[in-house]
């Protein structure tokens, strides 16, 4: 026990307690200040290091490798510079590998605005990219393969602790391209576009991309000499599918074209499903120059295309086509028809309505169904036809004419062209005719041969009808009429017949003998006339 005489411990005074608290606070302030200085120094050091890294070849190689990996291409950026938090790139180029959907890609004058605050979350947040010019070539060149791109170098592998703080993911905002263009070419087709204003909006997870474009021109081998002025389009992309949600364009003469399409990227081959329509297109824009003064009209069409877009020659086409207010003039065959039929309406053939359903098979055959060609006041054509990939022609058509059109061609409207109720037509052909066709005279027309050398069966039937009708007419004539007919057919035969009548009046009692001789001599003349004259009518359709 402590001794009672020992002094008691001194009780700390309030002043000493305040001194101790003050010393503790100073130590905390010094520690916090030191930490702040160290943190500021670290931030400054990191900023300086980051600034140096962003301007280094290491960063250029890393970003190029990252882009290469995403695009499956060998990519390169040149002339990278920084102004504040904005990066500027003089040029960008990429060569696609065998797995890339394109052959080459290039861009110039690129600006990317970076959200500097997101760097602390290890994220390259590119708030927006603006590109002055960009183009892409989709043409595949298998004879110039590109080696597969190498995986991107991890930024942290550069060196030191600070490199581990570099962002390791990218968040991309809208990309705006002032002038975008593309080229595509296969063995048999091509297309190109220029000066499109394009905006691309990736989703946050980069799994979905929207694209919107306006302006520019589009040219293709399918519409030669007819560049399209693009109004606007909307497209999208997500893993496994590319979609053209809408497309609108016009031509210089205000024809309109609309469309939509999708391409599913299957493992074996891509699958295209496209639909389009065309309205108010002047034929003068798409037909050869030597036909410009012969064919006129306004075309419209709708089409569905399916198949492998990498093999355009085997795509399947289905659709409808029509021509309004068509005009055929100046064709030699029309001149011949007009002269032989004594009908000037054939010289300038007005086609009020021409239309058909069509199919272009994957093997290259063209099939025309429900074909209609209407020339009011003259003729109407209905039926089906086909053209093989080797240009072989076949068709079963019905040809109708206005009564009196072939009145100067003996037998044509009595034996070949007949009213519907008298025409020898099978049920399948009669199904093509409606009440609007009852006022016409009809016959079948069978097409064959090839596009370069077509054949038809109508000429022979017209020639035979003309011959039979003429012979019947001669046999039923009076003697005086027979002499006049022979004079028209052949001066020689007429002279011979006249001499017989003059020198042998008794022969008048033997009319049958005279008619037999007239038939024998006139038959050869009529047959030659049928072969040389009537065959000129061949094919009431232009070849």
Explain what the structure shows.
The chain has helices at residues 14-54, 57-71, 332-341, 412-416, 427-430, 458-475, 479-489, 491-503, 511-532, and strands spanning 73-83, 86-96, 104-114, 123-137, 169-172, 175-185, 190-202, 208-214, 217-220, 223-238, 241-250, 256-265, 270-282, 295-307, 316-329, 348-360, 366-375, 379-387, 393-401, 441-449, 454-456. The protein is α+β, with helices and mostly antiparallel strands. It has a 21-stranded mixed β-sheet that branches. Strand 11 (241-250) and strand 12 (256-265) form a beta hairpin. Helix 6 packs antiparallel against helix 9 and helix 7 packs parallel to helix 9 (511-532). The protein is elongated. It starts with 13 loop residues before the first helix and ends in an 11-residue tail after the last helix. Residues 143-149, 154-159 and 490-543 have low confidence and may be disordered.
Give a brief description.
By secondary structure, the protein is α+β, with helices and mostly antiparallel strands.
Features:
543 residues; alpha+beta; 21-stranded mixed β-sheet; 21 strands; 26% helix; 40% strand; disordered C terminus
Low-pLDDT stretches: 143-149, 154-159, 490-543
Structural class determined from secondary elements: alpha+beta
Order of helices and strands: HHEEEEEEEEEEEEEEEHEEEEHHEEHHHH
Report the mean per-residue pLDDT as an integer: 75
Tell me the quaternary state: single chain
Number of helices: 9
Query: How much helix is in the residues?
Result: 25-40%
Q: Approximately how much beta-strand content do the residues carry? A: 35-45%
Gyration radius, in Å: 43 Å
Ends: how far apart? 138 Å
Strand count, sense and barrel status of the largest sheet are: 21 strands, mixed
Number of strands: 21
Shape: elongated
């Amino acid at each position: 026990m402590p001794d009672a005489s020992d002094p008691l411990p001194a009780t700390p005074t309030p002043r000493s307690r305040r001194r101790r608290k003050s010393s503790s606070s100073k130590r905390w302030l010094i520690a916090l200040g030191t930490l702040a200085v160290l943190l500021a120094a670290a931030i400054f050091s990191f900023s300086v290091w980051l600034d140096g890294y962003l301007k280094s070849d290491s960063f250029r190689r890393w970003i190029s490798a990252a882009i290469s990996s995403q695009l499956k291409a060998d990519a390169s950026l040149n002339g990278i510079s920084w102004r504040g938090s904005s990066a500027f790139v003089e040029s960008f180029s990429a060569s696609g590998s065998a797995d890339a959907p394109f052959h080459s890609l290039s861009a110039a004058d690129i600006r990317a605005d970076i959200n500097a605050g997101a760097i602390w979350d290890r994220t390259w947040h590119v708030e927006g990219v603006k590109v002055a010019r960009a183009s892409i070539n989709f043409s595949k060149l298998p004879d110039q393969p590109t080696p597969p791109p190498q995986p991107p170098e991890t930024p942290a592998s550069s060196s030191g602790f600070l490199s581990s703080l570099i962002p390791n993911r990218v968040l991309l905002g809208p990309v705006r391209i002032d002038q975008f263009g593309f080229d595509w070419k296969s063995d048999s087709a091509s297309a190109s576009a220029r000066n499109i204003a394009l905006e691309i909006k990736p989703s946050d997870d980069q799994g979905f991309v929207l694209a919107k474009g306006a302006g520019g021109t589009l040219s293709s081998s399918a519409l030669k000499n007819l560049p399209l002025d693009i109004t606007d389009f909307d497209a999208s992309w997500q893993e496994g599918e590319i979609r053209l949600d809408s497309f609108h364009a016009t031509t210089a003469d205000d024809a309109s074209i609309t469309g939509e399409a999708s391409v599913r990227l299957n493992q074996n081959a891509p699958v295209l499903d496209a639909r389009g329509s065309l309205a108010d297109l002047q034929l003068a824009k798409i037909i050869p120059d030597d036909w410009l003064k012969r064919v006129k009209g306004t075309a419209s069409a709708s089409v569905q295309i399916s198949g492998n877009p990498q093999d355009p020659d085997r795509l399947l086409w289905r659709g409808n086509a029509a021509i309004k207010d068509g005009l055929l003039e100046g064709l030699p065959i029309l001149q011949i028809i007009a002269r032989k039929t004594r009908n000037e309406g054939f010289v300038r053939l007005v086609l009020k309505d021409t239309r058909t359903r069509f199919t272009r098979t994957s093997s290259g055959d063209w099939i025309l169904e429900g074909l209609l060609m209407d020339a009011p006041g003259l003729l109407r054509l209905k039926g089906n036809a086909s053209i093989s990939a080797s240009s072989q022609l076949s068709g079963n058509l019905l040809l109708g004419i206005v009564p009196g059109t072939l009145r100067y061609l003996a037998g044509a409207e009595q034996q070949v062209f007949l009213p519907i109720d008298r025409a020898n037509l099978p049920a399948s052909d009669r199904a093509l005719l409606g009440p609007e066709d009852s006022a016409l005279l009809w016959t079948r027309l069978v097409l064959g041969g090839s596009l370069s050398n077509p054949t038809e069966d109508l000429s022979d039937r017209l020639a035979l009808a003309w011959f039979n009708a003429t012979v019947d007419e001669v046999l039923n004539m009076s003697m005086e009429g027979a002499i006049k007919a022979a004079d028209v057919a052949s001066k020689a035969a007429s002279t011979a017949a006249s001499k017989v009548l003059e020198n042998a009046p008794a022969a008048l009692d033997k009319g049958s003998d005279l008619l037999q001789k007239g038939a024998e001599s006139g038959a050869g003349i009529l047959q030659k006339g049928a072969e040389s004259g009537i065959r000129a009518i061949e094919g009431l359709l232009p070849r």
